[in-house]
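Field log, afternoon session.

UNIT: design team B
ACTIVITY: writing a sequence onto a fixed backbone
BACKBONE:
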C-alpha cells in the first residue's frame, strides 16, 4: 500500500483505480512496457502479486473510437461528447412536462471559458427541498455522466411512478459535467485524463485535481503539490474557477438542499464524511451513525439489483485520507448533511456502452433507497 501510494504520487504511472485500504481491492494501473518491467520487479506477476487485466488497452480504445466516430447524434445508451450533451440539455429544457419547470442555470465558467451548466427540474410549492446530482469532476470517469443522464431522463419524462412521486416531493438539479475542459480533452487527446486543463506556472504539466482543490483543509493530506501528478491540489485553495463556481453555488443553495451526490466511477463504493485526518486519525462525522445507516440502505439497494458488492463508509477509513475534497466542502461549508460520493461500477475507466444500462438500474435503485432512508431518519 505504501509503495503503491508512493508510485502514485511520484511516478508518472497512471492509476485508473487508486490504491485503497480495502483488503482485497485491487489498484489498477495503466502502464507502458517499461513501466510494466518496474511493476513486475516490485510486485512479481509470477507470484500473483500483480496481474495483467488487459494486455492491449490501445486495441480496445481503437475499437471504441471507431464506434464513437460513426455516432453523429446524442445517444443515451452510449457515451456522448460535451457538445452533444449540451444540445441534449437544451432540448430537455425546451421540452418540459406540463406543470414542471425545466431550466438551465450556468453557474460559472471553466478555465478555458466553457460554461458550467445545471439543469433544474422543479415544481411549484413552498419550501421544496432539492436533490443535487453532479458528475465528471474527474473527466475520464465517463460512466458517471452516462449514468446520471439516464436518471435525468427518467425524472424529466415523468412516466414511471417512482419518478413522478419523487418530483412531487423534491426539486432535482443535475450538473452532468463539472470539468468540461478535462472532458473535452478525454475525447480529443487523452482518454484517461483526470484533471482540469489549467496551465500551471513553472511547470510543463497541465491541470488541477478539482477534488483536491476545495477550501477545506486544503493541501494537508492525500494531495500532491507536484503539478505533474493526478492528485495535484492546485497552487492555492480554491485556485480554480471551477472550484470557486461549485463552492459559490453550494453556499447559495445549500440551505434548501436535502442531499447532494457527487458521482465518480470504478470503485463500487458509497463514501461519506470526512476525508481528512484529525490528530493523525481519520476524522469521523458527529452524525456518523446517520450517514452510515443511509449509506447502508443506499449500497444494499444497489447490491440487490445485480448482486454486485459495494463497500460503504467514512471516506478516509475506507479509501485513504484526502483533503480539499468536494464532499468535505459541501458538508462543512455549505452545511449539507446528506452528502455522498458514489463510485459507480467499472470495469476501469473505459467500460463499454453495455455498462451504462446496468449502472443506471442499480444506481437508480440506490438513489430511491437513499431518499427513503433519509426520510425515515428525519421522522
Ligand atoms: Zn473520481
Amino acid at each position: 500500500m505504501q509503495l503503491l501510494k508512493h508510485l502514485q504520487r511520484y511516478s508518472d504511472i497512471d492509476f485508473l483505480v487508486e490504491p485503497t485500504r480495502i483488503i482485497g481491492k485491487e489498484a489498477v494501473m495503466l502502464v507502458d512496457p517499461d513501466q510494466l518491467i518496474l511493476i513486475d520487479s516490485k510486485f512479481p506477476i509470477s507470484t500473483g502479486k500483480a496481474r495483467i487485466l488487459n494486455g492491449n488497452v490501445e486495441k480496445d480504445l481503437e475499437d471504441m473510437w471507431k464506434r464513437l466516430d460513426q455516432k453523429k447524434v446524442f445517444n443515451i445508451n452510449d457515451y456522448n461528447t460535451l457538445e452533444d450533451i449540451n444540445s441534449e440539455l437544451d432540448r430537455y429544457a425546451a421540452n418540459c412536462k406540463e406543470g414542471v419547470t425545466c431550466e438551465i442555470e450556468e453557474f460559472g465558467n471553466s478555465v478555458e471559458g466553457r460554461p458550467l451548466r445545471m439543469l433544474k427540474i422543479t415544481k411549484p410549492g413552498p419550501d421544496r427541498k432539492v436533490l443535487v446530482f453532479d458528475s465528471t469532476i474527474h473527466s475520464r470517469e465517463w460512466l458517471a455522466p452516462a449514468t446520471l443522464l439516464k436518471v435525468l431522463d427518467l425524472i424529466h419524462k415523468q412516466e414511471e411512478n417512482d419518478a413522478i412521486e419523487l418530483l412531487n416531493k423534491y426539486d432535482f438539479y443535475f450538473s452532468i459535467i463539472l470539468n468540461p475542459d478535462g472532458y473535452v480533452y478525454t475525447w480529443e487527446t487523452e482518454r484517461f485524463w483526470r484533471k482540469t486543463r489549467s496551465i500551471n506556472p513553472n511547470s510543463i504539466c497541465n491541470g488541477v485535481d478539482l477534488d483536491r482543490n476545495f477550501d477545506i483543509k486544503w493541501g494537508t493530506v492525500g494531495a500532491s503539490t507536484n503539478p505533474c501528478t493526478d492528485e495535484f491540489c492546485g497552487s492555492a485553495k480554491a485556485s480554480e474557477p471551477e472550484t470557486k463556481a461549485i463552492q459559490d453555488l453550494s453556499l447559495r443553495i445549500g440551505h434548501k438542499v436535502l442531499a447532494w451526490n457527487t458521482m465518480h466511477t470504478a470503485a463500487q463504493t458509497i463514501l461519506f464524511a470526512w476525508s481528512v485526518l484529525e490528530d493523525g486519525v481519520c476524522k469521523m462525522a458527529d452524525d456518523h451513525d446517520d450517514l452510515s445507516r443511509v449509506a447502508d440502505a443506499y449500497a444494499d439497494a444497489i447490491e440487490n439489483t445485480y448482486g454486485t458488492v459495494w463497500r460503504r463508509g467514512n471516506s478516509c477509513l475506507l479509501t485513504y485520507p484526502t483533503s480539499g475534497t468536494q464532499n468535505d466542502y459541501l458538508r462543512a461549508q455549505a452545511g449539507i448533511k446528506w452528502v455522498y460520493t458514489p463510485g459507480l461500477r467499472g470495469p476501469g475507466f473505459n467500460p463499454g456502452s453495455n455498462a451504462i444500462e446496468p449502472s443506471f438500474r442499480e444506481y437508480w435503485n440506490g438513489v430511491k433507497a437513499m431518499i427513503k432512508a433519509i426520510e425515515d431518519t428525519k421522522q
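LOG NOTE: The CA atoms of residues 211 and 256 lie 23 Å apart.
NEXT ACTIVITY: expression trials, pending approval
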